[in-house]
Amino acid sequence: MSEDELPSAKGKRGVKPSGKPTLKTIAQMTGFAVTTISRALNNAPELSQETRDRVQKVAAEVGYLPDRAALRLKTGRTNVIALVLEPDEQIYGFGSSIVGGLTEAMRGTAYHLVITPLFRNVAPIEPIKHIVRNRMADGVVFSKSEAFDERTRFLIDNDFPFISHGRSNWPESHPWVDFNNEAYAYGAVQRLAAKGCRRVTTVLPESTLTYTDHIKTGVARAASEAGIAHEFAADVNLGSAADAIRSYVIKRSKRPDSPDGWVCSSEVSALAVISGLNEAGLKAGQDVHVITKQSTPMFAQFQPGAETVAEDFASAGRALGSLLLRRISGETEGLQSLTEPVFGWKDEG
Question: Which parts of the sequence are annotated with region: Disordered (predicted)?
Fold first, then answer.
């Protein structure tokens, strides 16, 4: 233990301060120097674990929060990671799972998470510009990456640490975490063909999103190899209201060339598809087969008759957080993570 780690006899242990606690408050309570308190709260490795644990425990007990403005002036850092999130995120379970994973990744660090909402009728680039121009965070996380996403372009050009959930097609390498949607779509259509389906329809994400092309490629390749027909749902996508998807399925199912297999990319869209099939007099899992990605166990509670492939958003959140922290610390290579789908088809009999 270094000399400045030795507690002073003047430390008022166990006495809770009045007013807003500061570094000086914690110093008075523990007997450590203010500089030691500051380094302990930032997990300085030269301090003993015992000292760091003690200081952090007292800071938590008195409700100490760093002065962000002072911190930014002194170090240029805010110790904040901003997650830009749509309040009505379409993909079931996405928001809460990503937040949970991100906070796990930041546990034990000086960083904490701030959620910046992206409201309707506001361009996705606007909250990003606001964060960067006002230095409101040390790093940014956003989702729904587009092929040539202007958010990615802006952040690269401004050399601002970020990570995206989903990839872009810009030539510069940048941090991202993604699910292999091409492999998912390929495997899903293979499964439908094995179950005897002759025409497969896919409810795609919005056309601007990068993973839309990944899904289309996987579907087309598997259908071609299996020698079956494929199509992509017209007039509706994952961003459409559930009632709109349901109405489309009803109409499409009543035509002579109706599909006998459906591929969905979210539980919400799958439930809408299954509801439409039921209204059209068809039973999922018997007359028609449905495969969807699943992000929470709750989907199975509806007993929908669909087969599922898991996509773990909590794990994605942990990867987003850990890779972004590496980027903030100055790393620029190896900051991408692609998760492969696991197919656990359960055949009866």
Answer: 1-22
